[in-house]
Specification:
There is one protein chain. The chain is mainly alpha-helical. Helices cover 67% and strands 3% of the residues. It has a two-stranded antiparallel ribbon with strand order 1-2. β1 and β2 form a beta hairpin. It is elongated and about 55 Å long. It starts with a helix and ends with a helix.
């Protein structure tokens, strides 16, 4: 059961990593060649998806050590939640004035990042959190036997 949850977690991480630029691409560059905030959010989401895949593989390969799977689950939940919180600007990363870039979504609600990318990311984040919570519960309940 645990292996299935780790594999499912890794697959969801791959889909999360592919969402912003392959499956449901964020907005492209503006006419002046610069990128909007959603581009940088896409980079962040891709990184968090890749991190979730790495954590899942570590948990799958290091399943004999008791601390690897719970740590992987907790860190995967944090990475998944950040994939939602950063683009929604609940957790702010970057500063356009000083750094030249920042994460977030475009101002117009009809842009692709609002209509396609973030709804998909929201579903994936919910699924990742659910899978990891189930894996954590299964891991702690299974230890009692």
């Amino acid at each position: 059961m645990k292996k299935i949850l780790f594999i499912l977690n890794a697959l969801l991480g791959v889909v999360l990593a592919l969402t912003p630029f392959v499956l449901f691409p964020v907005c492209g560059p503006m006419p002046n060649g610069k990128y909007m905030m959603c581009h940088y959010s896409g980079i962040f989401i891709t990184g968090m998806g890749a991190l979730i895949v790495v954590l899942s593989l570590l948990a799958l390969w290091g399943h004999r050590k008791r601390w690897v799977a719970p740590l992987s689950g907790v860190l995967s939940i944090v990475a998944a939640l950040l994939s939602y919180l950063v683009p929604m600007r609940i957790v702010v990363i970057g500063n356009k004035a000083t750094m030249g870039w920042e994460c977030g979504l475009c101002k117009a609600a009809d842009m692709v990042c609002h209509t396609a990318t973030m709804p998909t990311v929201t579903v994936l984040v919910s699924a990742l959190v659910l899978v990891n919570v189930v894996a954590l519960i299964h891991g702690f309940v299974g230890r009692g036997r």
